[in-house]
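Lab channel / #folding
Pinned by the channel admin:
"Please post every new chain as: sequence first, then the structure tokens as a reply. Keep commentary short and put observations after the output so the thread stays searchable."

First post following the new format, from NK:
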Amino acid sequence: MPDRTPEALPLLVRLAITGGRPAVLAAALALSAPGEYRLAVLAGWDWRFALIMPAVLSLYAAVAAAIAGSLPKGSTERAQANAGALIALLLALTAQVASHLIEAGYMTKSPGVVIAVSAVPPAVAAHVLHLTAAASRLTPKATKTPEPVRIPEPAAQEFSEPEPVVTEEPEPVKEPEKCQEPLTQPQQIDAVVRALYDSMGNRRPATRHMTDALEKAGLPSSDATARTARKRVEAVEPRLKTLPSALAA
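Reply from TO:
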């Protein structure tokens, strides 16, 4: 079964990929905001500053995830960025649980809660600055291509042209024409299949395309015959196997 490109996916699936994931993330962060706000107020912050706490954690998760996607796989900095995104989500989860436990009377406000909440903004700022510095170090800088050195051409020397010598050229010996042998049936099938790659605009033909073309050419047109011919053609020209499928056009 050929791979399906994003354009070949159903409309609802494409909408879920492009708009569903950000919508779910935004909704989850919005639901986490009240608990983070209440926990900041319980820790003794003024309500106007407590409003910024949900934004700090949400932006921390988004920035860490974006930086992780821009760093090379397997690098220490990418692992740290992924850990930052995970820590942001864990902080949001902890804030929700702690604020609800305090309001329900199962947990009391303690110096540890105040210290932990107060330490979140500077810790987040320090980690974000570290990640951005690491990302800037790993980003390759553009280098200027040196201009080629031009070598001056030597001055043309004046010389007198020699008089042409007229010689009689012998008539070329004509080689006997070779009789071209007719193509075998597998060679004819391969030629029909190979022509489909060009006629479809450098795309890889599907089985139904090959069987239809073989049937029009009066050749065996079963699915197995078409697939076997495609394997022979792509074995001779391996680049044809990497072309996009004609079904995605």
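NK: The radius of gyration is 35 Å.
TO: also worth noting, The mean pLDDT is 77.
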